[in-house]
Amino acid sequence: MVAAFLHGWKMEMVLLLVFPAIAIAFHLKIRTVEQHRQKHHRLMQPANDVVTECIQKIRTIRAMGGEEIFRDLYSKRLRAPYNARKKHAKVYAVVYALSESGVHVLYAASFKFGFFLIRSGLMDLVKVYRIFFALGICIISMSHLLTYRQEWITAENTLHKLFQLVRGHCDNTECQSKSKC
User: Fold this and answer.
1) Any residues with CB less than 8 A from the CB of 47 and at least 6 apart, and which?
2) How far is CA 143 from the centre of its chain?
3) Which residue ranges form the domains of the chain, and what is each CATH number?
């Protein structure tokens, strides 16, 4: 951000108005994908249970000729995730189309203003591109930070509990009932 201000504050001010909208659009796409991934994982659990049970009891199933039964059961359990994925494809297509079209309109406006600054002699081409790249990298970094924030919090909490167990300090009642921490 500082590098962008050093090379041209006018272009920086325009981009500071534009890039938050771009970051929000990117975050919306990522969030949509993540929500549907979690839902898909939950919907796939019954089918995964059928496969796990089949693998655990493979000899019995083979001896009794139950392959057809398990295949049919597995197929039935896959219908819900399949239908959910079809719906998700439509939702994601709309979200993707809207966010990308908005992003490209904002890019076009930013480049148009940059062209105006270059043409009027207020900035040179290299400075305009330096500003674009500096802010682009900042926005990408922030969107990745927002995307992986929840995973970071979960990992941090898990490590904290693990270190408590290693040190012998449990605040979890389930842990205390199983062993002396």
Assistant:
1) 74, 77, 78, 81
2) 9
3) 2-147 (1.20.1560.10)
For residue 163, what are its two tokens? 């270190």
Q: What is the mean pLDDT of the chain?
A: 78
Instruction: Give tens-digit pLDDT for 75-94.
Output: 899 898 899 888 888 888 88
Q: Is 121 left (phi over 0), alpha (psi -120 to 50) or beta?
A: left
Cα–Cα distance measured from residue 113 to residue 19, given in angstroms and rounded to the nearest whole number: 14
Which DSSP helix (H) or strand (E) runs through 99?
Answer: helix 67-119
d(CA 13, CA 22): 15
Confidence at residue 11, expressed as pLDDT on a 0 to 100 scale: 72
How many C-beta neighbours within 10 Å does residue 80 have? 15
> What letter would DSSP give residue 121?
T
CA dihedral over 34, 35, 36, 40, signed as positive or negative = positive
Residue 176 neighbours by CB under 8 Å, 6+ apart: 170
- Amino acid (one-letter) located at 81: P
Is there a contact between 136 and 22 (Cβ–Cβ < 8 Å)? no
Look at residues 22, 8, 12, 34 and name the one whose alpha carbon lies nearest to residue 102. Answer: 22
pLDDT band at 5 (very low <50, low <70, confident <90, very high): low
Helices (H) and strands (E) in the chain, counts: 7, 0
